[in-house]
Amino acid sequence: MTPTLVRHHLPHAGTVPRVDPWARARDWAEIQERMLVPLYEAVYQRLEVGSATRLLGLGCGSGLALLMAASRDARVTGVDAGAPERLALARERLLPEAWGTRARAGTRLVDGEPADLASGAGDSGTAAYNLVTAFEPIGCVGGDSEGLGELLAEVRPLVGRGVPVVLAGWGPPERCATASVLRVATKLADPLRRAGSWRPALRDDLEEVAQRAGLRPDGSGRVACPFGYADVGNAVRGLLSTGLFDAAVAATDQAQVDKELREALHPHKRRDGTVWMPNIFRYLITRTP
After folding, report:
1. C-alpha 149: how far from its chain's center?
2. Which of 4, 56, 111, 138 is 20 to 30 A from 39, comparing alpha carbons?
3. Model confidence pLDDT, tens digit, residues 71-88
4. Is residue 129 within 8 Å of 53, Cβ to Cβ?
5. Predicted confidence (pLDDT) per residue in 172-197, tens digit
6. CB atoms within 10 A of CB 227
7. Domains defined for the chain, CATH in brackets
């Protein structure tokens, strides 16, 4: 998972292993991204996302969360940096001119940072966005919260006062079956370069980011997001697409990581060959000052 997710493509320390970026983006979009659908739906329902919503999605990836908001008639904008392949898939989903259909009104996708968006006001004089989401789960990679804090600072000129900003993160490791599998990333990574590998989520990860960004907490929730896969091979591809194992691959090799991933997944394999791992994710709703 970019659990993103949430950011999956933040630069890791050390050498990044060679991968096929298009294959990885497809694996993310077709296998892994859907695992967070319950999180997106819970947030949208709680905040009553609809036709009056002008949503800015940070780290939008391949755009599933934006698509779900657009299906509720929200006007959506997504920004993402360093993941052009995922953004290309988001354009296929949200700007389907190639299919001979009309693009969703107001949809905008930007390869870059929030600062690359033109700030300004709408016809009514209100700020450009009235909801900001950062759905890529933080708190599982060293340094990811700092990267998110920088993005949130760039968002401030684009929104008015009291606008909800939603942060997402992993739940307690004891409530996330996938935690035992993700520990492979830390075990195999170079001990001197583990800033780019998985770490257990901490209870106050989201609150600390909000505090540093000057955002006011205004509610939170927990959502069950089980990870389910057709088979072990499908699970390995989905998990590798998150980028959380890149540091481990760089420190060892792809074959070693694949082998240990398969072993770690074995306890979660069911009789029919499918893989099932219950997880809890958190979201924190904050408000701009």
Report:
1. 15
2. 111
3. 999 999 999 998 899 999
4. no
5. 989 999 999 999 988 888 665 555 55
6. 24
7. 21-176+198-227+280-287 (3.40.50.150)
